[in-house]
Amino acid sequence: MPTYAYQAVNPGKSCDRCQQGFEIIQRIAEPALIRCPHCKNPISRLLFAPAVVIKGSPMTETDRKIKGYEKEGKWSHAAELADKEAEKTKREDLKVRALEDYKKAGYDFDKHDT
Ligand SMILES: [Zn+2]
User: String of b and e for 11-29 (b: at least 16 CB within 10 Å)?
Assistant: First the structure.
């Protein structure tokens, strides 16, 4: 689960905790907090790296392998791995990547006359 950072909207009125900002672990689906759980003053969510990274594509062992294949120009290897991983993890970004790698490997889906 990602960590989100919050900070007081009006630091002058708020408690020490939200004045300095605090981090809290939330599910992605959970709505953003609008009030500090301590002093009930308004707070706003800060956008920062961890949340963004988790939403996009976390760097896994498989990602690293795919990247390695891509670096070496082994497009079909990269594509197959990305494809498999996309199926397993339901990750859209990997599906797209697999398609791109397949294309680079010489498979041209657009020109198939099936
Ligand atoms: Zn507070």
Answer: eeebbeebbeebeeebeee
